[in-house]
Amino acid sequence: MTGFVVSGVGVGTIIMPPMANWLITNYGWRTSYTIIGIIVLVLIVLAAQFLRRDPAQMGQLAYGESEVREEDLDLQGGGFSLRGAIHTRQFWMLEAIFFCFGFSLQAIMVHIVPHAIEMGLSAASAASILAIIGGLGVAGRIMMGGAGDKMGNKLALIVCVSLMSAALFWLLGAREVWMLYLFAGVFGFAYGGFTALGSPIVAELFGTSSLGVILGATALGATIGDAIGPVLTGMVFDITGGYYLAFLTCAIVSIMAIILTIAQIKKA
User: How many CA atoms lie within 13 A of 66 on its CB side?
Assistant: First the structure.
């Protein structure tokens, strides 16, 4: 279910790059930002009208009040508080895993288009790489979210970070357009799967009583990675004059994520 919910992010990634490219070509980037901002504002406000806080508003029972047992959902009914969670090894390892994920993800999302243009692709073709990442991201969210239910969330997470690492090492040797597209597909699938597994992993490790605040705290690691990754890889590009060492840095960070994910198997 988490995979289906977060798949909207991937759909947006499919639609927005070509749309933004068309808008910028016809109206310039300033006007394009204004148009996109208005569209986002309208869509969010409209979508928010369909949200319901109380399940009773939709004729349903609140979580835990049905005949489905919590153990069948593989979640702890109680669990850790944020204060309790931050005193566990698993919390900080998860924080580091999220950091590695955010670092590599945003470094790629920011720099893959300039890299593709540098290789000779047109701006429109380069933007299509982001659309491929988004499209396969939708598939990754749904498929790996379902795989997490069957094989276990932590094993599914290992699969995702391993695929992401493999894609980044593939990118180092990508010299043709089809190789970039293959990279985008595998990377997008892995990134989408990781996104879908974030919340279930936190619930599995720390329970559901403080899920929101603990998920927010662990996601801080991804946010820090989001901020550092593009800047650091950009600095490496400026120093070296190419993206090889910049993307190699992302690949090494992804290897760290694999090691941390495997080591984090033990439950909190």
Answer: 13
CATH number where 38 lies? 1.20.1250.20
Is the CB of residue 126 less than 8 Å from the CB of residue 117? yes
Residue positions counted in the chain? 268
Report the distance separating Cα 148 and Cα 251, nearest Å.
24
Each residue's pLDDT tens digit, 149-179: 888 888 999 999 999 999 999 999 998 889 9
Residue 235: domain span = 2-53+77-263
Q: What is the pLDDT of residues 228-249, one digit of tens each?
A: 999 999 999 999 999 999 999 9
Contacts of 197 (CB under 8 A, 6+ apart): 2, 144, 145, 148, 153, 156, 157, 160
> How many structural domains compose the chain?
1
Residue 135 lies in a domain: yes
